[in-house]
Amino acid sequence: MVFDFRLHVFYTVACRLSFTKAAEELFITQPAITKHIRLLEQQLNTRLFERRGNSIALTESGQILWQYSKKIKVLYDLAAQDIAALAGMNKGQLHIGASTTIAQYVLPGILAAFRKAYPDITLELITGNTEQIEQFMLSSAIDLGFIEGHTKNRQIKYLPFLNDEIVLVAHAAHELAKYRELELADLYKASFVMREQGSGTLEIIRLALKKAGLKWKQLAIEQHLDSTEAIKSYLLHSNCLAFISSQAVQTIGADGLFKIIKVKDLQINRPLNAIHLQGEASPLASLFLKFVSRYNQK
Question: Contact at 8 Å (CB) between 217 and 189?
Fold first, then answer.
């Protein structure tokens, strides 16, 4: 079952707010995109987009059609998936969003195993921080998300799928790396590189340190970066410490460049969550969640 193509073109342009990006995603020319939008505007007797300098924006009519097109696409996808399931087949496309730590260290092996088990299901992965992934979910840009923590949005259902620990890491040559264990007060003497604002990891760290009695504003945060890999590279060229997910630990220290440092009376545990909109997850999303559950038990 194919989502009405002209409406699909509009939906893609509305999501990306770019004729060029929509053309690349749909593998058609930009003039073809323009033609489909113009014909749709003629059919509805209204303008759907307006130019704002070098960018475009939805008109009021465009906003209305975008809201309905999202619902229509979901219904098309559900119908196609239910029909496939009835025929004993698993086919279709599953749009997954994941925060950066999960996308880098948790999902790659799962995605590869899932594709091997279900070769007729196409997976698309979008990455961002926790806040961004939740927004993708609320806008129906993704079917399923995986995030580090959650903000308790009532429109979203949160399902813990993996336990994680955040550990303190230093460059092996750091003056504090020689200690087997640090006192909490020692953290005031160090400089830190942290994840960016909006990161689920950052919020978990902030809450854990506050609970331990440390004052966040008294910590020397030298830099915020948007990925664990960027933080690791920064550690190599600075005198900073960093809190990093245990999912990245297997790549930390393997080459002797980094050391994990214990902090007395501080343990930062968190569930990594799968998310979908309230209600039942789509058949393909449910299939992927069941697969993840079995995969994690191996």
Answer: no
Distance CA 278, CA 274 (A): 12
The CATH fold assigned to 164-269 is D-Maltodextrin-Binding Protein; domain 2 (3.40.190)
Rounded average pLDDT over 172-200: 89
Q: Which long-range contacts (CB under 8 A, 24 or more apart) does 110-113 make?
A: 110/291, 110/292, 110/295, 113/291, 113/295
Is 60 exceeded by the pLDDT of residue 253? no
Mean pLDDT of 147-168: 85
CATH hierarchy code of domain 1-80? 1.10.10.10
- 109-119: per-residue pLDDT in tens? 999 999 998 89
Query: Above pLDDT 70, what percent of the chain?
Result: 92
Q: Check if the beta carbon of residue 192 is closer than 8 Å to that of residue 241.
A: yes
pLDDT digit string, tens, across residues 266-281: 999 888 899 999 887 8
Residue 1: per-residue pLDDT: 42
Statement: residue 184 has pLDDT above 60: yes
Longest dimension (CA), the chain: 72
Q: Which residue has the tokens 């966040």?
A: 216
CB of 33 closer than 8 Å to CB of 19 = yes
- Provide the residue ranges of all domains of the chain, joining segments of one domain with +: 1-80, 164-269
Separation of alpha carbons 190 and 239, rounded Å: 8
